[in-house]
Design goal:
The complex is a heterodimer of chains A (311) and B (249).
Chain A: E1 2-6, E2 9-10, E3 13-14, H1 16-26, E4 30-37, H2 39-50, E5 55-62, H3 71-81, E6 87-91, H4 94-106, E7 111-115, E8 117-120, E9 123-128, E10 133-139, E11 144-148, E12 165-168, E13 177-184, E14 197-201, H5 208-222, E15 225-228, H6 230-234, E16 255-259, H7 265-271, E17 276-281, E18 294-297, H8 300-310
Parallel strand pairs in A: 1-4, 1-6, 4-5, 5-12, 6-11, 7-11, 14-15, 14-16, 16-17, 17-18
Antiparallel strand pairs in A: 2-3, 8-9, 9-10
Chain B: E1 2-6, E2 9-11, E3 33-35, H1 37-51, E4 57-64, H2 68-78, E5 82-87, H3 94-108, E6 112-116, H4 127-135, E7 139-149, E8 152-159, E9 162-169, E10 172-176, H5 188-194, E11 199-202, E12 215-221, E13 230-232, H6 235-245
Parallel strand pairs in B: 1-4, 1-6, 4-5, 5-11, 6-10, 7-10
Antiparallel strand pairs in B: 2-3, 7-8, 8-9
Classes of the chains: A alpha/beta (311), B alpha/beta (249).
Amino acid sequence: MSVLVLAEHEGGAIKDATLAAVTAATQLGAVHLLVASSGATAVAAAQGAAAIAGVEKVLLADDPAYADMLAENVAPLAAQVMSGYDAFVAAATTTGKNVAPRVAALLDVMQVSEVIGIEGPKTFTRPIYAGNAIATVESRDAKLVLTVRGTAFARAASKGGSAPIEPIAGPGDAGLSAFVRIDASQSERPELTSAKVIVSGGRALKDAATFEQLIVPLADRLGAAVGASRAAVDAGYISNDYQVGQTGKIVAPELYIAIGISGAIQHLAGMKDAKVIVAINKDPDAPIFQVADLGLVGDLFAIVPELTTKL
Amino acid sequence: MKILVPVKRVIDYNVRPRVKADGSGVDLANVKMSMNPFCEIAVEEAIRLREKGAATEVVAVSIGPAKAAETLRSALAMGADRAILVETDAPVEPLTVAKILKAIMDEEQPGLVLLGKQAIDDDCNQTGQMLAALTGRPQGTFASKIEVADGTVTVTREVDAGLETVALKLPAIVTTDLRLNEPRYASLPNIMKAKSKPLATRKPEEFGVDMAPRLTVLKVAEPAARQAGEIVGSVDELVARLKTLGVVA
């Protein structure tokens, strides 16, 4: 089987989520990467893509139309290239989720979303109902379109490969949409979805200043990423790209410390595959304690500073 | 401008789903069902756009069993003007839904289609994007802000890196994220009024769409259960246990 993987990159560097998608794709067949970008960034991303272990070829579509990964422009490009492939794989990031279903519909196939396991050439496992059930599905479509959950697959080595880069031309600008701007949140800490340790705060943190005072020093002490529950985001303690859960980011770090988070099913959907879960909550009946490996019942305003000092 | 809002009847988001013992699926018998939370946000946004004068009519549509009429009545009670139920007891995949919606778009000619970004049962996050592809329209997915002016919809999207803003030519397809708005509750008088609003029942055969699923569900299983954890008595004990587990230095 030949597999086309959509490469995601930022400033020319291939994202970790794509490295995980490459690992999943290698289980299906020969892997080619599609880099859709523009100018110097496109060239840097293609070189980065070519260096990934296990990639056999890189297709580079260099056109201003692809600079911002607009689905209206990238999906027809991918659908055109797919005439030579059996499967299209994208990481289940916001970019992958935006583009892949559009590709699937153009190819008249059903997409399999958020794949966490590959059981056979056309058989996959995926979580449904906020991760409360795992479905095994078999596709009967001629071509496969998959998005894969980054935390379910190891990342392919970003070095060691030397795939040839082949320039390709796509249909260009569909003239339907335009990129206006991105307001990126700045963070010095590790990226949430690839962090080994995550310190996450909930509504019990009271306000943005307290969140900052308690969660951030502990995260810095551990070299951890900061996460949040939906309640904390809705209350304005922190911006929404820190949200962990069914509707936010799906994470599976080595250590997840949930502070003042009750553990609603929508939140658990985003973090219950963490290796070790620690819960700090004053309510001994909070559902978070049902999934926590280590729980501490008490006042987080006393516990968190003490923990930060003693770690 | 007319706004079309597809809504889905799903298991209530507060209910913890139970996997059937025979592995055939999730047990939905006698379980509370509601409108998918993202669809509620879509209905709310459509009504707000009509209230602002950016839209003239809000049409809710649902594809599913006869009971999906209740979901449509909820949308009407929130303020939608009329509803269309495409009645089928067959399981429908996002691709099929998108094809039926395309046929309805051809009939209704909406200027904007507002969908939820995903349904909390199948967690697919596909239908809006597929509908946009099939109709050749632009898509604004995961929207947290929508502004309609001069034949363009400007959509602020919740992306992994932060917030991205795109400008889309109308007609367009927009899918809602959680932070787009706070859906209103339907008042009792509005619930009563909704009973007399028009609700047309259609059959999928009328649209000439192949309903056969492309994916076969072989099995549905419980996720692997986590080992029961322990409650520690103090911060010192917690730190010691974390060190033993090797997760902190």
